[in-house]
Design a protein that fits this description.
Layout: H1 9-31, H2 39-55, E1 79-81, E2 91-92, H3 95-112, H4 116-126, E3 128-135, E4 138-145, E5 148-154, E6 160-162, H5 165-168, E7 184-191, H6 194-206, H7 215-223, H8 228-233, E8 237-246, E9 251-252, E10 255-256, H9 263-273, E11 282-285, H10 287-300, E12 308-315, H11 318-324, E13 334-338, E14 343-355, E15 360-372, E16 375-381, H12 385-391, E17 398-402, E18 410-414, E19 439-446, E20 450-457, H13 463-474, H14 486-494, H15 501-504, H16 509-512, H17 520-532, E21 535-536, H18 538-544, H19 552-562, H20 582-590, H21 594-598, H22 605-616, H23 618-629, E22 633-634, H24 644-647, E23 656-660, H25 668-677, E24 681-683, E25 692-695, H26 702-709, E26 712-715, H27 716-731
Parallel strand pairs: 2-13, 21-22, 23-24, 23-25, 25-26
Antiparallel strand pairs: 1-6, 3-11, 3-12, 4-5, 4-7, 7-8, 9-10, 12-13, 14-15, 14-17, 15-16, 15-20, 17-18, 19-20
Helix pairs in contact: 1-2, 3-4, 13-14, 18-19, 20-23
């Protein structure tokens, strides 16, 4: 007999806390129509509980949230028992999880079917899927007798729902009488159009009510209104996707009506009866075709008037569906393939300070790893101490983490209901955690976060500051030296080989070979990469210097003026014959003032002060001279005087572009350079001044904002065509 194992107290406590919190959220969502969190957060907490119960199966209890499907029906509506149990679907978030699901179904068939010829035929049928959009709405169950609508109900707990017939009747897309006098039950989704949701939230805001979070919450609240007139005013819509029950032996036009043999034919049958069926379903032969559809709709979902949170895969043939059947709570033959979430919950295991290249001390949350937006997140920025206090964040808290597209993960809130009393407050230390140096405060004013305080290490020789500066110097947007990543740079600093950027260009193979992880070939490759990087774009060079407030876009604004004959900052107007090497920049910046820089659109007082002061410092001037002596030069193309006459002929001229997603034909850097060379501008954020959003694969939140502002969306193919037109125009 197997001995029962001792489960750690903290696990028991965590499981109990998860169950209580999830059940409270479920009750508010399903019973009271008053959700306090999004579906993503609820699903994330459920996933954590599922994993803990999988690891400790002895903790599973009949009343655990993982063992139920929905919630209790509201007492204010008549309770009705469903003819068939209403199931929920299991979720998959990756193609690999879909393959595992397919493999499980195949293994199940092998056990159930002994006839090898039949098994061979069924194996082929198993990989044929009807794939539908997963609509973000409220599940409804409709009953018809001899073609007339007699009952509309919500799912409830899967066995018993709520009678909402009168409200269902207000939905124009739901037929009160079918095209044929059949007795049957169908299942579908009730949803609120996005435009209607926006209108409703404007009304709620005027009335001092909190906005509804999404179309599902809006549909649920509307369909449960006691007054059908209120439901009718909400302009709800529907999609029907399942024939749940069909009374046996019914005749239609002299033929016995039977269940369609496939899901694909079933959807056609539902349309024939008079139901509204979402038109974007597809028959897929294999998971590769499913993945194509998934990627297509992941990019396109925001353009629809209804919410879409994934796809639903159903094995097409009912023969296979019937053989696979159901688990305790879900069908084996169907699964939801969810789009990557941008929010999830996890636990803060620690808070550590990160020292940046400017000396700024940034608190970083060390998280229990969690998958968000297709990648695993284990760290999140907390910005500064003021942010921690404002959000009341403690070590040990269960938190909501947000990640949209390529944005750095951040903590957007604390789930205080999950607190146990063992959480610890975090305080800013009095000394730098790396060098032990003093810390100074600096007040900052952020447009999003208001006034707060940043902390800086006062020791400019702090190892962490030097390391970050050097890593920044060789980064992709700087000198882009292949092979010199963060760990290698740290090793070079530890060994004393590199203390400042100029030391990088003094390295020889013999310096590197004795170091750990270096062999003759790798040492040679790195030295060759360093030599190649000596010819650098002036934009990359200025970015690599890490001058405070001067990022990639701001540097581009400056260099545009440096080589623009119409600008007061044009280098020839300042008496310089050329700008070919780093030392030339000393002469250039000695001849300009802060006021000159303020004339550049987008350059502010702090920026102009920062760059002028940087070029005045002896240490920095020496660095520029040393780099010049070591052979660093600006690429001829990047220091070429602009031909404005030609540029103004380009259709790119004066147009502002924002890029999002991955491009096939260009890297993002190549696309940016093309736009700039053609007279266009590149911005990192979408605004009302943006002319085009260049759209690649897997776009981030910029696409949503662009659509909201009415910015023109340009595909990669359209961009290439636009580029051809620009090239033609420049030749004229």
């Amino acid at each position: 007999m197997m001995m029962s194992r001792k489960i750690p107290e903290k696990i028991l406590e965590r499981v109990e806390k998860l169950r209580k919190t999830i059940d409270d959220y479920r009750y508010r969502y399903h019973v009271l129509d008053d959700p306090t969190v999004t579906d993503e957060i609820y699903d994330s907490l459920m996933e954590e509980l599922r994993l803990l119960e999988k690891k400790y199966p002895e903790l599973v209890t009949p009343d655990s949230p993982t063992q139920r499907i929905g919630g209790k029906p509201l007492d204010k509506f008549r309770k009705v028992r469903h003819r068939n149990k209403q199931w929920s679907l299991n979720d998959a978030f990756t193609l690999e999880e879909l393959r595992d699901w397919e493999e499980r179904n195949l293994n199940f068939l092998k056990k159930e079917v002994k006839d090898q010829e039949r098994l061979k035929r069924l194996r082929k049928l198993l990989r044929e899927y009807t794939v539908e959009l997963k609509i973000d709405g409220l599940k409804i169950i409709l009953e018809y007798e001899k073609g007339l609508l007699v009952q509309g109900a919500t799912r409830g707990d899967g066995l018993v729902g709520e009678d909402v017939t009168e409200n269902i009747k207000t939905i124009q897309s739901i037929p009160l009488r079918l095209n044929y006098p059949l007795t049957l039950t169908v299942v579908g989704e009730c949803w609120m159009p996005k435009q209607e949701l926006e209108r409703l939230n404007r009304v709620r805001k005027k009335e001092g009510q909190p906005p509804l979070a999404n179309s599902r919450n809006a549909a649920a609240g509307s369909i449960r209104q006691l007054d059908p007139k209120v439901a009718a005013s909400r302009k709800l819509d529907s999609f029907i996707y399942d024939l749940d029950w069909l009374q046996p032996g019914q005749n239609l036009q002299g033929k016995v009506v039977e269940f369609p043999p496939t899901q694909f034919e079933e959807l056609a049958f539902l349309k024939k009866l008079g139901f509204k069926v979402n038109q974007h379903y597809r028959l897929c032969h294999g998971l590769e075709e499913v993945q194509e559809m998934y990627l297509h709709w992941q990019n396109k979902r925001n353009k629809q008037p209804y919410g879409i949170d994934g796809l639903v895969l159903k094995i097409n043939y009912k023969e296979v569906q019937d053989l696979l059947g159901y688990t305790g709570k879900s069908p084996r033959f169907a699964i939801a393939y969810k789009f990557p979430t941008e929010k999830a919950t996890t636990v803060i295991e620690d808070i550590q300070l990160q020292v940046g290249r400017t000396g700024v001390l940034t608190p970083v949350a060390i998280l229990r790893p969690v998958r968000i937006a297709g990648s695993v997140v284990s760290r999140a920025t907390l910005h500064n101490e003021s942010e921690i206090r404002k959000k009341d964040i403690k070590i040990g808290d269960t938190v909501i983490v947000h990640k949209a597209g390529d944005v750095i993960p951040e903590i957007v809130g604390v789930i205080k209901e999950m607190r146990t009393g063992k959480e610890k407050e975090w305080k800013m230390p009095k000394h730098c955690p790396v060098c032990g140096g003093g810390i100074r405060k600096e007040k900052i004013l952020d447009k999003k976060r208001g006034e707060s305080v940043n902390y800086y290490c006062e020791n400019l020789d702090c190892f962490a500051i030097e390391k970050e500066r050097l890593v920044h110097f060789v980064s992709k947007k700087g000198f882009n030296i292949e092979g010199l990543g963060e760990k290698i740079m740290e090793q070079l600093i530890d060994s004393g080989l590199v203390r400042e950027p100029a030391d990088i260009f003094r390295l020889k193979e013999g310096d590197l070979e004795p170091l750990e992880r270096f062999a003759e070939k790798s040492a040679k490759n790195i030295v060759e990469s360093i030599q190649k990087s000596k010819v650098v774009d002036i934009n990359n060079f200025l970015y690599a210097l890490g001058i405070r407030f001067w990022g990639e876009e701001n540097v581009a604004l400056l260099t545009k003026e440096m080589f623009n004959p119409d600008s007061v900052l044009f280098y020839k107007k300042l008496g310089l014959k050329s700008i070919k090497k780093p030392a030339d920049l000393i002469t250039y910046f000695d001849k300009i003032s802060e006021e000159d820089l303020l004339g550049i659109n987008g350059v502010g007082e702090r920026m102009s002060q920062s760059i002028i002061n940087w070029f005045k410092k002896k240490k920095n001037r020496k660095l520029l001279k040393d780099l010049s002596k070591l052979g660093v030069r600006f690429s001829p193309e990047s220091v070429k005087t602009e031909d404005l006459t030609e540029e103004k002929n380009s259709p790119f001229y004066g147009k502002t572009f924002v890029l999002t997603g991955k491009l096939d034909s260009f890297s993002r850097e190549e696309a940016k350079n093309i736009i700039k060379k053609m007279g266009g501008k590149v911005s990192s954020a979408v605004s009302k001044n943006t002319d085009f959003l260049l759209l690649g694969k897997d776009p981030g939140s910029k696409l949503v904002k662009a659509e909201k502002l009415g910015v023109k969306i340009m595909s990669e193919e359209e961009f290439k065509k636009y580029l051809q037109e620009a090239s033609f125009a420049l030749k004229q």
